[in-house]
């Protein structure tokens, strides 16, 4: 009898060892990277097979709702945009990276506060698409994926484009041939051109100088300076927004970039009590956050750069502007913010809390305090962004536009 029991236990153990480990059944947040990777693998497998219900199950509740609204819109399928543009998908490379390395590209602090834990993966996905765009090209596309525990299950919270060159510079990339190709694509992207692996221009970001400068398909002809986009693609989930743009349901809206800033700032900053220099600093944060994600979209799967939701983007409410906020946007219209040494723009994170000196996050409360102490807008921005993880430990400065 004892021998029989031992045999049964041994057989069960063998069966457990050969069964696949699905991360969506995790009951603890302390699990191996390989177990969490299964969720990412499952999502990409679902992309490849166009199994949208399985794909949605890999995401957090907020993201699942956005995806459901996109996938349920027959216009998106007919236009073959976003996820509907994918012919095939397969992970070619994947690795977990330190949170300190991810902070420039992802708001990991906010995710940690909301979910208690976050793990970040750098992933190369080999896509074949029906039509190349700024969101997908044929070949290995690189994404940064944030994983969080929700209801005792690991879920995807974000899957954004990423600067491959920054990963290479920090020696945390793969060093593969496909990553080197992506690095050349990234170099052009930082100047407003989207190219494919062969160097052909897929798309140019419309800028205020587009009528003055004609860029050839030769990427060596890319202009040396940053110029702001004239528009930004926003996935409008708020009914106020999609109705404002003449849609009957959630969808992508092409939003004038200045109008976008004017409609975000009064919904992110306390305009009525903000000192002018604080409000100007806020205007720069709002502007450069949007600008960065035009270059490195957060929501390519929705065919958009950002959404109108404050939980994952910025709080955009179309038409809700304020004359004081508009004045701050105008005050900062001739300037941008960049890392001093590399001259690259970066995501200008900000939060309501008391973020500290060189934290990489502007504190909206602290910014007002600094303004009242005599700091100008640049000094406020430098107080928080200089020598921080968000800026690769570089200092920041303004650059002129136009």
From TrEMBL:
Tell me if Signal is a UniProt keyword of this record: yes
Signal sequence extent: 1-23
**Keywords noted in UniProt:** Signal
Give the top-rank taxon of the lineage listed in the UniProt record for this protein: Bacteria
Presence of keyword Signal: yes
Stated name of the protein: Putative Stage II sporulation protein
Tell me which species this is from.
Candidatus Desulfosporosinus infrequens
